[in-house]
Every structure is written in C-alpha cells, then in structure tokens.
Fold this sequence. Notes:
With 252 residues, this protein is of the alpha/beta class. The chain has eight helices and 17 strands. The protein is elongated and about 65 Å long.
Amino acid sequence: MTAVIVEDESIASRRLANLIEELAPEIEIIGQVTSVENGVHWFKNNPLPDLIFLDIQLNDGYGFDILDSLKDHPPVIFTTAYNEYAIRGFKYNGLDYLLKPIDKKDLENALLKYRKNNTDATALLNDDKFERIKNLFAKEYKRRFMIKIGNQFNTFNVDEIAYFKSHEGIIFLHPHKGKQYPVEYTLDQLENILDPVHFFRINRKFMVSVKAVTEIHSYFNSRLLLKLAPIDEEQIIVSRERTSNFKKWLDL
C-alpha cells in the first residue's frame, strides 16, 4: 500500500509521515512534494499511489490544481489549516478532512476509514453522508462580546475588534476605536470561537483581525514584523512557525 504527501511545510510533512508510520506501518510513503508544480510533475512521471495526503493551500496554488491535472486519482485525505474548503474537498473523492495541527486520533480514524473503503476506493459519498459533512463544518462563530465597564455592560460586535492581546496573564480586547478591555477568555479559547477567516493568532500574545494589519515587513529569522491599528507600543512579530500560514491567511 503506497501514499504520497503533498505539503509545503517541511515540519508538518515530517510529522505527518512519522504519524503514518506509527499508525499504519503497512503504508509506504513513496513521494513527498511541496508545490503544485512539483506535484503535477511527480504524478505525471510516477505510478499513482493508493492514497494521497493533500494540503489544500500551497505556496504556488491549491492542492485541487494537482487533482485537476489528473485524469483519475486515488482517495484523498485532505490536510489544511482552514475549514472553508471542506465541501469542495469531498467532491474530489475525499475520504476525510483533517485540520492542522493534525490530531493523532483524527488521523487514526481517517486511516481506519481508508481501510474500510479500500475494496471500493473510488466510491463517491452518497447524499446523506455529504449532508452530514456539510453540517459538520457549518460552524457558528462568536459574533459579539459583552464587556463589563464599571457597573455597566457594553457590547462589541466582532467586526469592531482590532486584536486581542495577552498582558500579564490577562487577555485584553482592543477595539478599532476606544480603550482596551479585559475579557474572560484565553487565546486558545478565542482561536476556537472566532472565525479563522477574520482572525489569526500570530504568536503567544496576539490574535489579530485582518482589518487591523496596516503594514507587513520582513524580519529576522524568516519572521514578519507587523504594524497594527490601533498602534501597540511593543514590536508585533509573527512567529516563525506561523509565518507561512499567516501569509496564506492574508491571501484568502
């Protein structure tokens, strides 16, 4: 049984390969490609594998472009940082759709699904399954925050918020206009309840909205230096491990 990994981040590719080796030693990884161009070339010059692990957003395009270049392709397990491509992904004979960072249990379930479907690997999902998938990814994200100010409460719609900042163990909401206010959430919790199309966690201290980013500069060690509005006094740097996904996020 063979598989190919399509992933433009070397750390993510190595981690996925290690997890596959641990969970499914019978699968041989016969190729690891890092771009649409390399992927199209690889599939043109090599036999098709039994399974493809495919990142959707690559540096030079979309993983879908590789599939579109093939007359036929084996089952696909999609791996991506974004969930808005889920429905399109399952139209490409997708077995599963794993959000990064990939959870070991989720990958194990996807591989189990592959084994169960291996006798009929080209079977498409029926309408009932497709409807359940659509409902799974139709997630409702938080729309507003209620903040206590003295003895009163004020409500901020999500589109009024520029960024969230962690300071001395407290998370502060920074609106586009006005003062900052503490909120009773962690940044980890905010990552789960805010729409990832509009908000991105750039490091351990900041989660920013796309509207707050006014300037982007190259910075030491492959990182990025940002200027936000409203201005914050400290340097705001996108961590190296998040830089690639940050660029993709801005390019949605």
